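ugh ok fine here u go
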Amino acid sequence: MTDGGGSGRPVAHGFPHLDTVRSALTALYRRMGGAGVRAYASSLPAADAVFADTEELHPGAQRIARSVVGHLRLPEARLLVGFRRMEHAATVELASGPEYVVELNDRFRSHRRDVAAALTHEVTHVLLHRLGLEFPDERENEILTDTVAVYLGAGWLLLDAFREDALTRQKLGYLTPEEFGYVLAKRSLAFGEDPSPWFTSPQAYQAYTEGRSRALRDLRVPPLRAAGGMSRMRYSRDRHRGAATPGAPYAFGSGGPAGPRVVFPCPTCHQRLAVPVRGPVRARCGVCGAVWECDT
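structure:
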């Protein structure tokens, strides 16, 4: 896992990896199914991820690792946590198990508040290894790992580890802070969970609010009935001419005997949905199970 701590490099912002993040959500739902993902409706409690004032380093790291393993439903995975000097924040040795070795950067010996965040990414690697879920490109695979960690309720710690001020620059993981916020907001919208009270970093909370604004836009694109007036007008114009405006989040097709259809991404998992162009309809996603009211 990448580590911005102490590097002095500026932290990247914005949404440069959004397409990969959305593909990761689709892949997660396809692999686990809607019911499987919904089994993670409750996030890892903050109390399970912090060191007690009197807790020693190695026992505390092992306890937190067990908490993350349990949250991610890996009962057979035994993690051995160590510390050493390295370039990155953390690494994990992936093998057949049942033991996995996670090594954390030595700086976490004194920055214990972020040990849980570093462990979250590495334990998610173990989960994805067990599921056989990966992307072919190495960097995209790391983005998949961050996305799954957040969406399954443990990776909010990765966002909370983001700090940026006159003296400190730190960001763990491969997503930008706003992208972490986007995935966390997608989870919040799917499960009705409000993560805002958990943040200890003001910068992380701000990134979450920016990500949430972007996530809410996914719920207001045509042909969804919640789309705004201007978007609906553009959709109506495109529908009449049978072709979407370049960059539009939908496309039109002939649909065969059933008539023309409009194709658009599910706001939850981004699987492509296709519905008839014939007025108010309901679209049910066959991957995540979400149902959407549409005016096509």
